[in-house]
Amino acid sequence: MATIAPFRGMTYNFNRLVELSRVVAPPYDVISEKEQEEYYQSDPYNVIKLILGKKKTGDSDWDNRYTRAADYLSRWEMEDVLIRSDYPCMYLSSLTYDPEDGRGPKVRWGLIALVQIEDEGSGGILPHERTFSAHKIDRLKLMRACNAQLSQIFSLYEDHENRVLSSLNKVINVSPQVSFDFKDGTQHQVWIIDDQSIFKEVAQTLHDKPILIADGHHRYETSRDFRNIMRARYGSRPPNRAYEFVMMYLTNMEDQGLTILPSHRLLKGCAGFELGPFLEKLEQWFEISEVPFSKSVGPERTIKLKSILEDRGRHTSAIGFYLHGGEKCYILSLKPTARDEMGDDLHPSLKKLDVLVLSRFIFQKSFGFSRGDLDDEEIFHFQSDIAKTISMVDHGSYQMAFLLNSTRIEHVKEVTGHSLIMPRKSTYFYPKVLTGLVFNKIDPYEIIQIS
Q1: pLDDT tens, residue by residue, 347-401
Q2: What is the rounded CA–CA span in Å between residue 113 and residue 247?
Q3: What angle do CA 30, 33, 35 make, to 5 degrees?
Q4: What is the pTM of this model?
Q5: N or C: less crowded end of the chain, CB within 10 Å?
Q6: What residue spans of 130-176 are helical by DSSP H?
Q7: Using CA atoms, how far apart are residues 443 and 148, in angstroms rounded to an integer?
């Protein structure tokens, strides 16, 4: 079902740029304005100038952050800051990080390669979250200006026997071409692979397996829109032209380094909110218990709260509720029969998701928010770190927080297996894949080698 191929990747010139850590960055959509400025200042060749350029007064159709990104890309290539491989390659990445769960560091493996783009509903490449048109318009403008894919789409595949990584053992046993520590404490290594036998084995292993998009849904749909534009201009034959493919970072679903974080919900304010009536209303769906919450700033309280939430969540949907000025946190455990009241419009697989339990019973039935409100970032803020979430409420930045357990990978697989879509911010695959390791320049006349 999946067509995997090597490609002539464009990378920073490792011989010229000694400190690669200064030129890479996280994906554009998790970078704040303050962080954007910090990346701009870190190095004149930082990838931020390509993926999230600054807006300027007087921007026009012929001079804007997209055209400036294209200009940087072209000039950096002419200056040999960026170099393109002379032959097709795949790129093996290892990412070492501490998930801070008390179990020590993890290593996540990812293979960067091209995957043939598929039409919606084909069943070969599966999304799991909703997308929004404004983000796709922004990325399409960038892709059309640069004729390049600048970031990998983080995707997952099933490989119970771990055949893909086993085929790469001989590569891992030699020194990587790239090795650096990023400022967030993560450690990165990249091996550049040019072995035809490996290409063939990887392609054959993944050929009959669906690919699940973990992160980068907007960029994948943008790549498909770009492909359709290029088809109209250059044709759809042969079927392996460069614009028929998208660059992906592929990880085994059973990789021991795969981590999914929760996306806790914060509310800025809810006019007329009263705690007593609110809890009384929730009692028809939830068992409510209290966890004393001291005002100490140490990590003990959040560690304890997280442990309780995880323990309750082993048997049912469990949600934490914390209110500004309160001295306790409430644990809301869904009653056994309540799930049937979530609505006949929901598939049974979706009813298992804590985010939908939160949305249906608390945000919609209790607060009266519409489904459109749930995607309004003026109303809701999302945060994956439970300690930061609690701190934001303590400091009064937000009135209340709803704390979630991580969505389980088996639930993600089940939902996508039924061709269903989760609500926005149902998952946070951690850490994000850094941008700047490899770029994919798209030549409309180039034919991609398929094993």
Answers
A1: 999 999 999 999 999 999 999 998 888 878 788 999 999 999 999 999 999 999 9
A2: 6
A3: 70
A4: 0.93
A5: N
A6: 133-146, 163-167, 169-172
A7: 9
